[in-house]
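One example given next:
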Amino acid sequence: MTQVLLADLVMGASSGQLVSFPTDTVPALAVRPQQSELIFAAKRRSQEKPLILMGAVSDSLWPFVKGSQEEQKIWQQVADCYWPGALTLVLPASDQVPSGMNPSNPTTIGLRVPNHAIAQTILSQTGPLATTSANRSGHPPLLTSAEIAAEFPEVLTLLAEEWQHPATTAIPSTVAQWTGEGWKILRQGAVQLESSFMLA
């Protein structure tokens, strides 16, 4: 039985097991960053597609990136405006990011703070987790605990009554990469980045 109480899911995630939980976009498949290869194997995911590091608050994510004081100030301003929320920031990775999170380009890392109470509760206890959408690569995102448990029997997911509700929206997060001078939109999703930030 892979559908468990929230406390058991947190314990499993902390010990290195694959878990799934709802977010403000699509449900996440998650694991400790050091065990990122488990996600690639479970999803049959291309090594070319990096994972996202998700945290409960922005301060838990900044140790995983590196930049000048001016860059860090800009990143913090964007985070203050859009986090928690459906915006993923792709930033230069520090040496704290396991290379397995982005095998084809370990110099960058995507970061996000979800605007979802259950996700934040889990992440506040586990620390940042490597995440991606809960589905086989190339297939539509799975939106309920039961669907995920059926597709991924090895993954710990929440009991239906703990899950509470499906994702707020099935639209993925917007992905914006820092170029050194401003932001480049890699994927337009649920959030529209303000033009004032684009010209940073």
